Amino acid sequence: MNAIEFKGVSKKFKKGEKFDSLRDLVPNMVKIIFQGNGKQNGELKDKEFWALKDLSFEVKKGEVLGIIGPNGAGKSTILKLLSKILKPTNGEIKINGKLSALIEVGAGFHEDLTGRENIYLNGAIMGMKKREINERFDEIVGFSELEEFIDTPVKRYSSGMYARLGFSVAAHLDPDVLLVDEVLSVGDMCFQAKCMEKIKNMKVSGTTIVFISHNMEAVLGTCSKAMLLNKGLVTAEGQTEIVVKKYQQGTSYKSDVSEIAHRKNSIVEIKEVSFRDKSGKVRHAFKQGDTIIIRATLGATKKLFNPDFGIAFYDEKGTCLYGHHSKVDKYEIGDVYGTFQVEVEYPNIDFQPGNYLIYFGIYDSQGLKPYEYVDRQYGFTVHGNKGETGLIHLPHFWRIGQEVVL
After folding, report:
1. pLDDT tens across 242-293, in order?
2. Which end of the chain has the least Cβ crowding within 10 Å, N or C?
3. Where, residue-wise, is CATH 3.40.50.300 in the chain?
């Protein structure tokens, strides 16, 4: 028996669509009424794009489906369609059984209510009676480890506390289908492990789970099958190990960025940026501590006198983790002309597991005027399981001293 069925589902959005007042909303609604919204023929209008396109899949009762892929692939859109936060543009969605979802930190919480009150609110939304919530209340609070804060308004909770309570409620209301997004990444290491153990137990008990994560170790250890998405389309589906391997061995992904992120001119062009291991082989995925070589191929139509190069690393939230320039590194490039390559080697890329993007730019000899740059269009994935938290690894040493009594 299928717990979830997606049949020819498509979902489109409009870039920059936002209504801050009735003055903006009313003309748009009139336009839709008289001109239609393009749903019948599936055509895209100005500034529209497909987040999902004619997607079909099934999840059997008791299966755990892992949905993986780069940012913008459509993963979270699927979960929001399943939870009925969004409606599909086309297609049909069927869910057999009671559904519980953890899609965003604190989704469904009222910030002015306490943790206790939000447990009852979420339970009621799920269709549970007060008696049923009473029976599970202590278990929910105990799992979240928030006993001393349970009567505090959740607006005073940290993101990690939100995630603890949100997951505890979603997982202890005995759902037939559980939806889990990457939200668990905000919790601390011990609680993440606790959540993964709970998911595995729910899997054994027959709960159907749809699990989104950039942590491939978690996907491999939890999911009975996987689906790889890219720009709203399925590029691989089936055995988890095979799908994950295809994702890890894929070419460097490009993020969907605006034109301002890629500056061009007639003097020099960045033709390609690739990531390579120390043997020179192009790779998309690396392990913590691996050597990464960033190689850029450029073409200059006239001689450039001792240009400056800049590189910066970003996480997926847009936080700059590290940046440097060849000038600052006191490396003199010399004069270049025609087609040439620039390489930068990082012997120990000790970022935590996740996806990372880079900025690459070429500047004048003073390091001030950019000739051309590509901003966060190229990226790579880091895998590992050191049992640490955060974005980077810091070399460290432990010492313990015993007080000397004179």
Report:
1. 888 888 665 444 444 333 344 455 688 888 899 999 999 988 888 888 999 9
2. C
3. 2-248
Contacts 24+ apart (CB under 8 A), 37-43: 38/12, 39/89, 39/90, 42/10, 42/89, 42/90
C-alpha to C-alpha distance for 150 and 120, rounded to whole angstroms: 12
Give yes or no for a contact between 353 and 189, defined as CB atoms under 8 angstroms apart: no
Superfamily of the domain at 2-248: P-loop containing nucleotide triphosphate hydrolases (3.40.50.300)
**From CA 115, how far away is CA 145, in angstroms rounded?**
12
Q: Is CATH 1.10.10.10 the right assignment for the domain spanning 259-383? A: no
Span 341-380, pLDDT tens digits: 999 999 988 888 888 889 998 988 876 677 888 887 788 8
CA–CA dist 350, 191 (Å, integer): 23
